[in-house]
Specification:
Family: Belongs to the aspartate/ornithine carbamoyltransferase superfamily. ATCase family.
Strand order of the largest sheet: 7-6-5-8-9
Radius of gyration: 19 Å
Distance between the termini: 8 Å
Helix content: 25-40%
Structural class: alpha/beta
Protein name: Aspartate carbamoyltransferase
Largest sheet: 5 strands, parallel
Order of helices and strands: HEHEHEHEHEHEEHEHHEHH
Number of strands: 9
Shape: globular
CATH class of the largest domain: Alpha Beta
Oligomer: single chain
Number of domains: 2
CATH architecture of the largest domain: 3-Layer(aba) Sandwich
Organism: Virgisporangium aliadipatigenens
Number of helices: 11
EC number: 2.1.3.2
Pathway: Pyrimidine metabolism; UMP biosynthesis via de novo pathway; (S)-dihydroorotate from bicarbonate: step 2/3
Strand content: 5-15%
Length: 304
């Protein structure tokens, strides 16, 4: 098993499948009266978040606590970081405190990789800039597998702001590793340079892709990362790349709708679709806890 989880590319098919299989067992704990295992008792997990987060931070906190680890939540706001402390000095502080694992979200792409060179504990990338978010890809794969019965041979469309999406990058890497076909759908302005090197097809025509996919993964338009206009208007974007009931009617009957959250309802996805039986959005949040329990278990408890 790997030492750190910095990229979805760190996982081969066997290790990814092992994490997903273990997550199934972790998910079964939700039905127990006592939702705790003693596996990581005495271990310390630090959630080091330089960017705002709701789902990911709480999910990692719940996962660590259910494995009986001690959890320290570190927010850049109100800490020495706001006084100018560098990532390296923060890392050395965590090292001195004996952190066994550091879950890090940072606005700079590559920050978790640097952190991993400064601390002895395990480092888990919870999102770095516009680069990657490997545990989101794992929970998405878990959701696909549980809803569709398998991933190999499936066709997944990832739609929207691919350019700024760390979720898209990690999903392309992991889904390819697990044998799925991926098509990226976006306006030309929101397709990254060098996308031809990704293991994915690219389409600018959402409607043409719909009849052949097993899952549609919608992405939020990340306006906070945009310094200029990438499309004419929100209305025009929604008309061409939004998922509404008409487009859903063109999907195969078994196809599911996914979204990593947070959603902009009415722009990339309509409320009717987000709340429909095809939607796995709430499931993805629940699955995230089980998947992150599995990641922590394998990095800290299951294997040395």
């Amino acid at each position: 098993m790997i030492h750190d989880l910095l990229s979805a590319a760190d996982l081969d098919a066997d290790s990814a499948t092992l994490i997903l299989d273990t997550a199934v067992e972790m998910a079964a704990m939700a039905d127990r009266d006592i939702k705790k295992l003693p596996t990581l008792r005495g271990r310390t997990v630090v959630n080091l978040f330089y960017e705002d987060s709701t789902r990911t931070r709480i999910s990692f906190e719940a996962a660590a606590k259910r494995l009986s680890a001690d959890v320290i939540n570190f927010s850049a706001k109100g800490s020495s970081v706001s006084k100018g402390e560098s990532l390296k000095d923060t890392a050395l502080t965590l090292q001195a405190m004996g952190a066994d694992a550091v879950v890090v979200r940072h606005q700079a792409s590559g920050a978790p990789h640097r952190l991993a060179t400064w601390v002895d504990g395990r480092v888990i990338n919870a999102g770095d800039g516009t680069h990657e978010h490997p545990t989101q890809a794992l929970l998405d794969a878990y959701t696909l597998r549980s809803r569709l019965g398998g991933i190999a041979g499936r066709h997944v469309a990832i739609v929207g702001d691919v350019l700024h999406s760390r979720v898209a990058r990690s999903n392309v890497l992991l889904l390819h590793t697990l044998g799925a076909k991926v098509t990226l759908v976006a306006p030309p302005t929101l397709v990254p340079v060098g996308v031809s090197e990704w293991n994915a097809d690219v389409s600018y025509d959402f409607d043409a892709v719909l009849p052949s996919v097993d899952a549609v993964m919608m992405l939020r338009v990340q306006r906070e990362r945009m310094g200029e206009a990438y499309f004419p208007s929100a209305r025009e974007y929604s008309r061409r790349y939004g998922l509404d009931p008409v487009r859903v009617s063109r999907l195969p009957e078994h196809a599911i709708v996914m979204h990593p959250g947070p959603m902009i309802r009415g722009m990339e996805i309509t409320p009717e679709v987000a709340d429909s039986p095809r939607s796995t959005i709430v499931e993805q949040v629940a699955n995230g806890v089980a998947v992150r329990m599995s990641v922590l278990y394998h990095l800290l408890g299951g294997f040395k």
